[in-house]
């Protein structure tokens, strides 16, 4: 089968299209023919070894020092089950599924084997493979943090990085929770962020968050770039600032100081993905309450170009990879 491998850290040009053995499912696994996958910020950071300085050594110890131990990157996918192990009961051959491969990666290929217990469920009936492939990583992360924030109807929620992969889902999910949502993005994302449901949008290139008269119950920073001091200052008395990404020690220290000096909280950490939450998202999608925003679409053969575009930092929503030439369904 064809797969894109990353044998060393570096620019997008380190990626190579190669032929590798087609995987064979174990007794508790399914073999999925991948129709679509994505390139997101996490893929680009791993390929480029953009790890938080304080965690650089332990991350490379886990991931690989000269290059990723898991050569085939990609953490989310949509496709059709082609084979099942003898112990599999949840799925059948021919089932259309979407899934997160998580720390096992492997989605930038024509086929992948996943355990039946992986974060995987049947594809939403009203989504194409391309749309569904973008859900299992970013939408699960958004749902995790918003649930952690215990967002309630009527609360004011600010999404920093609202035009990105996690952000576009976070805006929509927060709205389903009954929140009044303010998105923060650049000028080019304003129309789109409003279109997906944001009640208000702040253009960070023209307006400083510190100048806002609003107070928020929950701030979710999807990109790890929100000014922590300003974010804490616009929180309500017991508000919480969640960051999905911590890229440097200074931000971590600033967050700890802010938490220790007042009743407001600054919380980071890694999102936990569950099949239960993936099914929750599937229900929202089939109810017409959640959709995927696709910025650009590439083929597996264009993986270098896809990574280069993600590296620009200007993507809106998702960059999707069509693997086997399957068109929208």
Verbal overview:
The protein is of the alpha/beta class. The chain folds into two domains: 2-134 and 292-322, Alpha-Beta Complex (Quinone Oxidoreductase, Chain A, domain 1), CATH 3.90.180; 138-267, Rossmann fold (3-Layer(aba) Sandwich), CATH 3.40.50.720. It contains ten helices and 15 strands. It has helices at residues 41-48, 56-63, 129-133, 135-148, 165-176, 190-195, 228-233, 249-261, 275-286, 303-311, and strands at 2-6, 15-19, 29-39, 76-84, 96-100, 111-115, 119-122, 156-160, 180-185, 200-203, 216-221, 235-243, 265-267, 294-299, 318-322. Strands 3, 4, 5, 6, 7, 14 and 15 form a seven-stranded mixed beta sheet that branches. The protein has a six-stranded parallel beta sheet with strand order 10-9-8-11-12-13. Helix 4 crosses helix 5. The chain is globular. This is NAD(P)-dependent alcohol dehydrogenase.
């Amino acid at each position: 089968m064809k797969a894109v491998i990353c044998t060393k850290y570096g620019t997008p040009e380190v990626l190579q299209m190669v032929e590798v053995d087609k995987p064979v499912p174990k007794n508790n696994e399914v073999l999925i023919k991948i129709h679509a996958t994505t390139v997101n910020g996490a893929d680009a950071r791993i390929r480029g070894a953009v790890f938080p300085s304080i965690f650089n050594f332990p991350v490379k110890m886990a991931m690989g020092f000269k290059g990723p131990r898991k050569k085939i990157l990609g953490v989310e996918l949509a496709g059709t089950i082609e084979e099942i192990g003898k112990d599999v009961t949840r799925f059948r051959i021919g089932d259309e599924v979407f899934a997160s491969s998580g720390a096992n990666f492997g989605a930038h290929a024509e086929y992948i084997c996943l355990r039946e217990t992986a974060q995987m469920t049947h594809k939403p009936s009203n989504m194409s493979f391309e749309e569904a492939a973008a859900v299992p990583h970013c939408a699960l992360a958004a749902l995790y943090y918003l649930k952690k924030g215990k967002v309630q109807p009527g609360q004011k929620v600010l999404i920093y990085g609202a035009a990105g992969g996690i952000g576009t889902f976070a805006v929509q999910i927060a709205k389903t929770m009954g929140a009044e949502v303010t998105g923060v993005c650049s000028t080019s994302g304003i129309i789109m962020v409003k279109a997906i449901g944001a009640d208000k949008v702040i253009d960070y290139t023209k307006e400083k968050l510190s100048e806002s008269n609003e107070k928020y119950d929950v701030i979710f920073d999807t990109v790890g770039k929100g000014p922590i001091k300003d974010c804490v200052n616009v929180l309500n008395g017991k508000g919480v600032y969640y960051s999905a990404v911590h890229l440097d020690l200074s931000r971590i220290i600033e967050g700890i100081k802010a938490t220790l000096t007042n009743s407001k909280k600054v919380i980071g950490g890694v999102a936990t993905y569950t099949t239960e939450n993936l099914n929750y998202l599937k229900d929202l999608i089939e109810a017409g309450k959640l959709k995927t925003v696709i910025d650009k679409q590439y083929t597996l053969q264009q993986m270098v170009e896809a990574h280069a575009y993600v590296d620009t930092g200007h993507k809106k929503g998702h960059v999707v990879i069509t693997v086997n030439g399957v068109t929208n369904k």
